[in-house]
Write a structure and sequence with these properties.
Strand content: 35-45%
Shape: globular
Number of strands: 11
């Protein structure tokens, strides 16, 4: 396979087929490797989590692909609290964005996801995702652990952003999902959005 060849794969994630471009890993003769672009931003927290911390999601049972461009994180308040309240909007008989999180300990509350502002389409101002018609209301009966999963598929897209002078490629995620975590580590979906 030549260095310009791209293999198109489809990964089934929770019943949705998402395109993924996989680039061959190249040699050390000056050509870029698969992780060159991602290493520039993959460990930076998206701005929508400005008042929360993202921790490794240890002990959760996720079917999210195990690959650097697929991120799975436990959300914690900046005060250290990991049991949070979720506020979700509602529409079309389902929970929808915008999503807010609140710390029951210090009362830190912030919108963490709205597809009209966050993710690839939100950053570009062209989101057509369905959002709720109501103000977000308390979703959970008691504070719970929260896991978010988001991805950066298509290395060439992120290389182009960086080459165009975009300083926050971590805010251009293409999928976003939020879950509560059960006592045995199982993830229960609250919302899931394609953002690109």
């Amino acid at each position: 396979m030549g260095s310009d060849s791209i293999v198109h794969l489809f990964i089934a994630i929770r019943g949705v087929l998402l395109p993924k471009r996989v680039f061959p890993r190249l040699g050390t003769d000056g050509e870029r490797s698969f992780m060159d672009i991602y290493s520039k931003f993959i460990n930076r927290k998206p701005a929508c989590f400005k008042s929360f911390s993202l921790l490794d999601a240890k002990g959760v049972k996720s079917d999210w692909p195990s690959s650097p461009e697929f991120i799975s994180k436990l959300v914690a308040c900046e005060c250290g609290e990991t049991l949070l309240d979720i506020y979700a909007s509602f529409g079309n008989e389902m929970h929808l964005a915008p999503i807010e999180l609140e710390c029951p300990k210090c009362k830190n509350k912030s919108e963490i996801f709205n597809p009209t502002k966050h993710g690839w389409d939100g950053e570009n101002g062209d989101s057509c995702s369905l959002i709720g018609e109501s103000e977000p209301k308390l979703f959970n009966k008691s504070p719970t652990r929260v896991v978010v999963e988001f991805s950066y598929q298509g290395e060439d897209n992120y290389e182009e952003l960086i080459n165009d002078g975009i300083n926050n490629p971590e805010d251009y995620f293409d999928v976003f999902a939020l879950y509560t975590v059960t006592e045995n580590g199982k993830l229960d979906e609250v919302i899931s959005y394609e953002c690109a």
